[in-house]
Structures
1.
Amino acid sequence: MIQTCEQTAAGFHPASAPDYIPLPRMRELQSSRLRKIVERAYSRVELYRTRMDERGVRPEDIQSIDDITRLPFTYKADLRNTYPFGMFASPMSDVVRLHVSSGTTGKPIVVAYTREDVDVWTNVMVRSFAACGINHGDIIQNAYGYGLFTGGLGAHYGGEAIGATVIPISGGNTDRQIMIMKDFGVTAICCTPSYFTHLMDRAMELGVDLRALPIRVGVFGAEPWSESMRRCIETGAGIKAFDIYGLSEIIGPGVAIECPMHNGLHVFEDYFYPEVIDPVTEEPVPDGEEGELVLTTLSKTAMPMIRYRTRDITAMIPGECPCGRTIRRIHRVGRRSDDMFIVRGINVFPSQIEAALLAVEGTLPHYQIILTREKGLDEMEVQIEVTPEVFSDRIGALEELNRKLVHALDRTLGLRVRVRLVKPNTIARSEGKAKRVIDRRNLDE
Ligand code: DLL
């Protein structure tokens, strides 16, 4: 464990964490870490070396954190183009973990961690839990998915390190989640906010009153949610709901967390340096104004990310937080500047869907994606036009095609979705950009 937090048998004391250090000291820490990470990235990763050379920037030009704007940006496409290991700055023998997240088409993106990176991740998750009032003695039901998704293992390591009891239940099987929550005296849950609202609905159907259970905290993230959803969760389940933000490319969950003030998310900027820029001009925007979040990992060894364009839209919140943390805050992330959307915590790009659909014979390149929320759970229906021959064929042929498409989408997205085959010319044509995604989920419901 990186020794920036005080860990004792009695639990975690956040007061000693960098969350509270004075700004000038934070700037010094960030500057020294940035110098090292830029040197590492330049000397070990071809993409960074080429980009910096093209800009005429040498590692020694980067002396303080204010020099960061001289560095080139990094994009999701860079990770895809260097698939699988081209962005690694450590030999594979030092890499102890790999995770995978969806790319825009075809291949996913791969992220790597050394032992030290996993320790940093654990450290920020410990500080995240502490900010939500979770500590030694708590029983955490970790319903984020375990596996290639970073949610499960990220929360797991942090929960154990803070001294809580972690139940690695992963996602799904809602009735069992409710039984365990009740029988094990769970005090905190980690999952996507939409899954929790589904769990609340199911508990109601089963006659379980969540407000009467010991559960008191929820740590919700991996997808956008709203203040009204928070109110619905807090009153319906009798818990305090906290927003946690993160992305695989940077570390996973634990890039930023709400504190009990519930007024923005504190970024763990001793490890992840935030900038907010205008996505078109690429210039920084003033605090308080919306723009795209750009993050630099200040200590990641296996896969440093320099000025990574997250595509998430947010704003830096000016001023100090009454909670006493000095690390800066961002507004909750409500939307993105690209077309990625999130279904049940899984990132989906329309381009992935298009590639999967059109690889199946009998389909036409006219499709539409309809998103709804039923009983708190995201549902996705893909409507696609099929050729006149297929459409006038036997029912059996249509069913067979439907099955193939469901399977192709499942294989590409890792999600089971509904497919509806429609006649040629059914889907509205657009004069400009095709409107592929119709999102009828109301975050405020
Ligand atoms: O979703 C990591 C995570 C796991 C975060 C568990 C929080 C809790 P990815 O699958 O790589 O990683 O997806 C990252 O999800 O760029 C945002 O667009 C979105 N996202 C993550 N957290 C939030 C949040 C994980 N709290 C992408 N609010 C990010 C809004 C979020 N969007």
Note: Residues 99 and 111 are 5 Å apart (CA to CA).
2.
Amino acid sequence: MCGIVGYVGYQNAVDILIDGLKHLEYRGYDSSGVALMADGKINVYKAQGKLQNLIDELKTKSDSDIKSNMGIGHIRWATHGLPNQINAHPQTCNCGGLTLVHNGIIENYASLKTELEKEGCKFKSQTDTEVAAHLIAREYDKTKDLVLAVNNAVKQLKGAWAFCVMHKNEPDNIVATRKNAPLLIGVGENENFLASDIPAIIKYTKKAIYLNDGQIARISKNNIEIFNPDLSIADNKVEFLPFEPLALSKMGYKHFMLKEIHEQPDVVRNILQDKIFDEISDIKLKDVKLTKEEIKNIKRIQIIACGTSLHAGLVGKYVLEEITGIPVDVEASSEYIYRSTIADKNTLVIGISQSGETADTITAIKQVKKKGAHVLIITNRNESMLARLSNSLLHVNAGIEVSVAATKSYIAQLISIYLLAIFMAQTLDIKTDLIKDIKHELLILPSKLEAILSNCSLIREVAKKYSSYKNFIFIARGINYPTALEGALKLKEISYINATGYPAGELKHGPIAMLDETMPVLAILNEGIVYDKVMSNCEEAYARQAKLIGVANHIDDKHKKLFDDYILIPDIKDIVSPALNVTVLQLLAYYIAEYLGKDVDQPRNLAKSVTVE
Ligand code: M6R
């Protein structure tokens, strides 16, 4: 993880770097720093903790200390070394002439460190990054050219990186390079930018150049040069950036998470627009390149993802198997990559990722591509690495999601999965009432979501009542089992309460031993084939004095007594219900965390994009 920014131009660099880092805080927030070039001298300022600490530190400096039109900045999510000031970036070489910021991991840093120490380098930090600073400085001493030095140095590295590098002898240039970590160049007028992600620069420019793996860029105020790894000149095209700066504002909500939950009805409308019009017409997915012949030949589907996206994949298993009859396996990317997996040209591999940057998913997708599988990526970031690796693409179009806890992107992933399943069925000439029902439910889903969102007071009261509990169990069966997992994940990550999702039928095989009056059990009950079964599991929990919370579209009078609290939601067909039920769980987690005073948008130890394995 980590976020990096670079600026060279005519404006005050420190303002632009800090503003950029604020928009990258979702990538890490345990320390930060900037390096500013002025009059052939580089000043480095760093602080432990949240970015505000760096801002406060910079306020203590005189104008002349921080006056500069060129600099690099970094926000860190620690991998090697504690999150303290020494380990914060920028990292410098021994003479202080070269400084750099890094996102990624240098896997062979230990052997390089030993080699550099033998040559007299003195290491100050515990980071892998400092190795790169010394290494590039060594190459610079030989070549006296920063592009050559960076190119020679990265050839000696193993791992993943995006670097922005400055050297005092090249006071007008920032040199940048990347491999398996994101980095883009923002193209301005008399100024240019570097950033890990679009939000850092979107205020200043709508034009960007994406670097390919191994390419090196030299940017100055009026010039951008890009070199291939063999140092030939590259001609990457300038692309138009998709975001509006407004999307980065909280728009009056206390947290981005709450704003993003409230955006869900529009997210659903957006994604359905141009794709599904009524219950009868065919749907259109322009970037899904699977032909009828290819779909007919698919023998299995594998879904690979992490975290919330993995939960969307689990819903996908129920939906795709039910509608297409093709067997579906779902696996965490981090598990998929270290075993002999079976995939071939008759396998459809679906990678799901909000960010399109998740390292484990990227590695898994690269592996299956080599085996000849058709790769379909479902992502919120059309320009991401995963999108670029895809044969077919489903852009979920949820708009930028800032809060570390994924909410609107999850609903958008679910909708994409329904669309894909229907698309495959229609291509195979499968026509069922279930498909019509799903289309109908999708079209009216936004108004049902609005009904929940416009009446949050009960969810808020329930949240307050249960906020002091230390453990939670979420249960459901069938297609809402992944909803239970997702509800538990939301609660864990933003409130730090221990919460676990179980298939309700599994309760009696072990977890029931934990039930007593200190253990709230949240049950998701949707009228459908497993409703009565889950109700029986609720009876079992009630008999063990557990506090029972129901999230249901119906509870008959004789069962109401089982529940300490219940939240009723609009009626919806079981197969589409995960997209509605999860909203209640997102709000419950949000209000509990808010009530406990937690840092909702930036929970401890987490980062939004996990770009390290
Ligand atoms: O960007 P991705 O969807 O690939 O990210 C996967 C997970 O890191 C992500 O869903 C994570 O679990 C979120 N914090 C969940 O809220």
Note: The longest strand covers residues 98-106.
